[in-house]
């Protein structure tokens, strides 16, 4: 499942450069994650890097975007093949 950024985001700018897929960008009020690019760092790291650096713990799994490890890996392969 993709990750999401909640409204607890303080716009600290630490998550965006950590995303290996470029899925995180500045939104109108807070940072946002493009679920089509988010692989939870599958294929790159053992853990989502944005979650590790977030000082306010506002990056949970998105319950609307359930994906298996296999689906995340397939997405990673598609993104990196381009």
Automatic annotation (TrEMBL):
For this protein's source organism, the top of the classification is: Bacteria, Pseudomonadati, Pseudomonadota, Gammaproteobacteria, Oceanospirillales
Kindly state one GO CC term assigned in the UniProt record.
cytoplasm
Q: Which PROSITE patterns match?
A: 4FE4S_FER_1, 4FE4S_FER_2
- What Gene3D superfamilies does this protein's entry cite? 3.30.70.20
Q: Which UniProt keywords apply?
A: 4Fe-4S, Electron transport, Iron, Iron-sulfur, Metal-binding, Repeat, Transport
Q: Give the matching PANTHER family.
A: PHOTOSYSTEM I IRON-SULFUR CENTER, PHOTOSYSTEM I IRON-SULFUR CENTER-RELATED
Show where the 4Fe-4S ferredoxin-type domain sits.
1-29, 31-64
Top-level taxon of the source organism: Bacteria
Q: Supply the SUPFAM superfamilies for this chain.
A: 4Fe-4S ferredoxins
Under the heading Pfam families, the entry gives:
Fer4
Give the protein's recorded name: YfhL family 4Fe-4S dicluster ferredoxin
Query: GO molecular function: any one?
Result: metal ion binding
Protein source organism: Candidatus Halomonas stercoripullorum
């Amino acid at each position: 499942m993709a990750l999401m950024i909640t409204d607890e985001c303080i716009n600290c700018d630490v998550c965006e450069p950590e995303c290996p897929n470029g899925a995180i960008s500045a939104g109108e009020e807070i940072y946002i994650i493009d679920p089509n690019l988010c692989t939870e760092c599958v294929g790159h790291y053992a853990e989502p890097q944005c979650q590790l650096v977030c000082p306010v713990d506002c990056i949970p799994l998105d319950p609307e975007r359930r994906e298996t490890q296999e689906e995340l890996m397939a997405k990673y392969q598609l993104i990196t093949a381009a």
